[in-house]
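Quick review question:
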């Protein structure tokens, strides 16, 4: 969850350095926000509303949660008014299902509303993937990161939607970007949207009412059994002080295989969701020693018990009024609607996708099958570890394999994307340097060719960015690098490098570059998004890197068409292991000298539920297969470069004349000669449904390459072979620049 996406509002030049957090937010939300604020130099203070003083006009924002972590529904209008009077923005974390029947935060003056859309039909998934949402008042819209969809008219005057801003912010604004998010949760956002489309506002209200009614019945039963409820107004969550022994309740809960939240002061918490049925209520009542069944309790309650629906918190405004939410309420209709949308897409099942996503691989059905198993999908991220031993085993296996592949010593699975991995890895570097007493080290060297997320992440980790020039071969300009290292040697924190470079070249000097940085007290962050050209062949940990993220949604087969989900675990050398992320609810840092950088995701192991995909990929490929896939990727890129070199200029090659796993064709001359641009070529390729399939014997093809004699039996762009899956990528100044 990108719960902390709203932090960009606290821009660095703002004089208001303070940010208040209501102590009754979820602990994981507090941890993520505190960590994020810590690296950007914002001072957070944990308080209750009545303790919050805005009069110094030094507070930029205040975050509270509605309903709060104990389930309480409360009126925040007075707090918001005080905040607004002093120029402070009000941010509210909330629950979408509750808002179907609760007065929404926008109606009591909140400026920024955020939360998870998991409750809209997405399984718990041991923490993720889930899409977060983030909504603002009209006056703040232009400050939101990411891309906007606008309504416009097409050539025939029909209303259509289009992207208003086509390029991601971090690629244009680099270190000035307000967000580093690249891979997001597009698939999950679509799932939640379809849940809304299918149920419509009436259906959603029914679901919310049902959950609330079940909670009211439970509350009544618990009161009758002599327990104390902490809050009178709630939606789906109760906080209880037991009238009997807590141990007795917990023992009975274990018998019925029900988990309750246990607070440090002995209070217990119970939350219900859409799936709750009468049997569940009976079980929970029994656990708490209530003599009656849910039915009997309900009978005794009568009609007048309506909970929040009989208070001023009841929602009166309409929502989801657009036609799309009021048209597809049967299974056949929603399926036809989804199919109609799908038919508008050009995807790999039709054609090549001219998308520069580096080394995204095709994935097999066998890799995807396990993620729908309930053992992976229906498990809460905060269950006791002994209930999630399968996951724990999977994490261990995957960590071991990824360490072996990368040459690192420890992996953190908390980051949900490559960009989030960058932020976590750089924060680990910062935490390490701080612990060494070198807090002043904050300069991060980043070549101009780096992916846009690099400078954006470095900025989020509180570093100052020094760009490094690129030479005519597309490699780091070593003399400029040396000059900048010398200039910043006192304050050098890190270098972020991509290897093979973004221009598709294995740089000869990589080990020397790492040495140079280390000699001057800096750390090396190697952007491992594109391990495609390295897996099985070379390891960042061996040639001198200290930390990398791996894009499991590129090199390790998690499908991420449409923009996400992804997983961006980071690997680190031993000395950085103590600084890896921690979690406020589940103990995940096992290093005995742990001194964690903080928390980067609300879920302890990020988007755990998609890790089985990479696990299956690695296990089915095996060491030989993985290496073979890398070789084939490099072979194909070189084959294509060779075949095309007579017709196009190949922009960059290594000193030996070879490219890595990708290369750049210069199409700029055609602009002059034929008024044809890269985007025209890309579209023409699509017209031809360009997706060629590997037909040749791979071994034979590889031998030919080594004899510098490329036959034409291996062709490939996005092809798949039974022993390995790989994709050749032709990007940047070629086909993707303007797409
Ligand atoms: C894709 C990519 C990233 C960003 O990864 P996300 O998962 O999209 O955040 C960073 N660096 C490089 C080189 C990449 O290709």
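Suggested answer, residue by residue:
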């Amino acid at each position: 969850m990108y719960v902390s996406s709203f932090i960009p509002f606290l821009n660095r030049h703002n004089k208001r350095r303070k940010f208040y957090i209501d102590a009754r937010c979820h602990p994981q939300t507090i941890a993520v926000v505190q960590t994020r604020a810590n690296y950007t130099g914002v001072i957070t203070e944990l308080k209750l509303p009545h303790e919050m003083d805005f009069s110094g006009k030094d507070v930029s924002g205040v975050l509270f949660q509605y309903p709060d972590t104990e389930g309480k529904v409360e009126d925040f209008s007075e707090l918001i008014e005080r905040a607004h009077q002093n120029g402070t923005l009000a941010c509210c974390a909330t629950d979408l299902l509750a808002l179907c029947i609760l007065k929404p935060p926008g109606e009591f003056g909140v400026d920024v509303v955020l939360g998870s859309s998991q409750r809209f039909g997405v399984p718990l998934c041991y923490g993720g993937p889930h899409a977060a949402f983030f909504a603002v008042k009209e006056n703040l819209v232009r400050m939101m990161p990411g891309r906007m969809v606008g309504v416009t008219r097409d050539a025939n005057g029909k209303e259509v939607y289009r992207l208003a801003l086509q390029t991601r912010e971090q690629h244009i604004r680099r270190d000035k970007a307000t967000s580093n998010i690249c891979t997001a949760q597009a698939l999950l956002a679509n799932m939640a949207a379809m849940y809304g489309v299918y149920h419509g506002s009436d259906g959603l209200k029914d679901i919310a009412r049902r959950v609330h009614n079940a909670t009211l019945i439970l509350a009544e039963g618990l009161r009758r059994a002599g327990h104390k409820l902490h809050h009178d107004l709630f939606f789906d969550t109760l906080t209880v002080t037991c009238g009997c022994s807590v141990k007795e309740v917990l023992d009975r809960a274990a018998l019925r295989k029900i988990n309750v939240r246990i607070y440090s002061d002995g209070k217990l918490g119970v939350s219900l969701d859409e799936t709750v049925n009468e049997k569940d209520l009976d079980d929970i009542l029994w656990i708490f020693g209530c003599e009656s069944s849910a039915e009997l309790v309900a009978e005794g309650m009568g009609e007048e018990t309506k909970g929040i629906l009989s208070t001023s918190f009841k929602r009166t405004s309409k929502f989801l009024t657009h036609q799309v939410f009021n048209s597809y309420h049967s299974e056949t209709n929603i399926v036809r609607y989804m199919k109609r949308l799908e038919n508008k897409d050009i995807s790999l099942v039709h054609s090549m996708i001219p998308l520069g996503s580096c080394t995204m691989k095709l994935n097999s059905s066998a890799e995807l099958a396990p993620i729908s198993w309930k053992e992976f999908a229906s498990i809460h991220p905060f269950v006791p570890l002994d209930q999630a031993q399968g996951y724990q085993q999977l994490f261990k296996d995957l960590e071991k394999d990824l360490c072996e592949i990368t040459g690192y010593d420890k992996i953190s699975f908390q980051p949900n994307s490559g960009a989030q991995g960058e932020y976590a890895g750089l924060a680990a570097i910062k935490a390490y340097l701080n612990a060494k007493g070198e807090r002043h080290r904050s300069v991060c060297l980043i070549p101009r060719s780096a992916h846009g997320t690099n400078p954006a992440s470095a900025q989020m980790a509180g570093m100052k960015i020094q760009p490094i020039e690129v030479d005519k071969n597309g490699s780091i300009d070593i003399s400029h690098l040396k000059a900048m290292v010398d200039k910043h040697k006192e304050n050098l924190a890190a270098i972020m490098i991509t290897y093979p470079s973004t221009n598709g070249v294995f740089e000869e000097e990589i080990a020397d570059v790492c040495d140079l940085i280390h000699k001057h007290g800096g750390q090396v962050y190697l952007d491992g998004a594109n391990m495609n050209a390295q897996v099985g062949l070379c390891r960042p940990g061996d040639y001198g890197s200290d930390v990398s993220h791996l894009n499991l949604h590129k090199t390790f087969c998690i499908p991420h068409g449409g923009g996400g989900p992804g997983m961006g675990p980071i690997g680190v050398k031993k000395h950085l292991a103590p600084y890896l992320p921690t979690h406020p609810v589940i103990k995940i840092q096992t290093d005995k000298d742990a001194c964690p950088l903080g928390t980067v995701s609300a879920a302890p192991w990020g988007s755990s539920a998609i890790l089985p995909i990479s696990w299956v990929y690695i296990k089915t490929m095996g060491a030989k297969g993985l290496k073979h896939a890398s070789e084939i990727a490099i072979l194909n890129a070189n084959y294509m470069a060779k075949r095309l070199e007579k017709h196009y200029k190949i922009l960059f090659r290594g000193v030996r004349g070879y490219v890595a796993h990708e290369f750049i064709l210069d199409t700029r001359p055609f602009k002059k000669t034929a008024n044809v641009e890269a985007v025209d070529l890309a579209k023409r390729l699509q017209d031809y449904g360009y997706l060629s399939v590997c037909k040749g014997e791979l071994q034979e093809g590889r031998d030919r390459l080594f004899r510098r004699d490329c036959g034409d039996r291996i062709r490939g762009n996005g092809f798949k072979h039974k022993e390995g899956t790989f994709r050749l990528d032709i990007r940047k100044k070629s086909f993707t620049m303007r797409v």
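Why it works: The chain has four domains: 5-172, 191-310, 374-584+596-619, 621-699+725-737. Residues 186-224 form the longest helix (39 residues).
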